[in-house]
Amino acid sequence: VAALEAEIAAYLGVRHAVGVASGTDALIIALRAAGVGAGDEVIVPAYSFFATAGAVLSVGAEPVFVDIDAQTYCMDTSQIEGKITPKTRALVPVHLYGHAAQMDRILAIGAAHGLRVIEDNAQAFGATFEGRKTGSLGEAGCLSFFPSKNLGGYGDGGMVVTDDGELAQRARMLRTHGWQRKYYPETLGYNSRLDELQAAILRVKLKYVDGWNERRRALAQEYTRRLGEAGITTPVEMPGCRHVYHLYVARCERRAQVQAALKEAGIASEVYYPQPLHHSAPCQHLLARTGSLPQSERASRQTLALPLDPGMTTGQIEVVVSVLQRGGLV
Ligand SMILES: Cc1ncc(COP(=O)(O)O)c(C=O)c1O
User: How far is the CA of 315 from the centre of ligand 1 (A)?
Assistant: First the structure.
C-alpha cells in the first residue's frame, strides 16, 4: 500500500496519497479531513454517481445541487456562485465519464469565497486539465479503484490525494479508527484500509494505465467518426482537456430504441445515470430548495454508454455502429 501510495502521488504530481477501502470512503474521509461536517453545505453537480451526494450526507452536511453543462456533463460553473450561502464550506466537482470539470473557474470561485475544493476523480484517472492531472488540482482528490475504473483492482479500493500534509495526516487517522497511536482513538474514524493484495495488483496495472487510456481515446474517436451526428450526440473534448473515456456516453433522443436494438444484437449498453441526484430518495428533503435542474434531468433521460474497453477492437466498434445504422437510429 505504501509503495502504491508513493507511485500514485508521483504519477499525479501530489505530495501525499492515502489508500482507503473505496472511492466512496475516499470522498467521506476527504470531506471530514477537510473539516466538513454537520451544518455545512457542499456544492455538488446534480448528475453523478450517487456517492458524490451520499458522501456529503454521510458526514452530516447538506449537498447543494448545481446543474450540469449540456456538453461535458460536468458542473455548470456559471451556477455555482448563485448557490453559495454563509454555510457553504466546499465544492465537489466531478470529472464525469473521464472529462475534467472546468477547474480554472472552480478553483477561482473556491479561492474567492474561501471554500475547499475536493475533486471526485473516481472516473478520470489520467485525465488532464490544462496539462495538469485531474485529482491534483483541488485541496484533495478522491480516486476509486473499483474494477471497472480506468485504474481498477480486482475488488474495491480508493485513495485520497493531496498536497496538504495536515489533511493527509487527518485522512490517515480517519482510515484507521481515528487513531495515530494504535488503540488510542482521537476521533471517531473508520476501518477503511486499502487491501495489500489490491495494492499489489494496482501497482502492476499502473504501469499500463497510460497505454490503456490512449487506447480508450482511439476507440472513442473511432465511435465518434463513425456515428456522425444524426440521431445521436457524441461526447466532446473541450480545449485544454484530455478526456480518458472512462465511459463513452452518447446522448440519444430515442434511447429506449437504441438500447433495444443493441440488446437484440447481444450488445450491452448502460444508462449512467437514470436518476439525477436531486431526485434520489435520500435527497428528497432537499427537493423544494433545489427545484428543477433541466440539464441533469434531460441527461438522465438521454444518456447511454456504448461498450468501451481498451481490450476492444475497431472491428467491434464497427459492429456496434452498424447495428445502429441498420436500425435507422444513426
Ligand atoms: C463519480 C463517482 N464518485 C464516486 C464513486 C465511488 O467509488 P466506489 O465505487 O469505489 O466507492 C464512483 C464509483 O462508482 C463514481 O463513479
Answer: 30
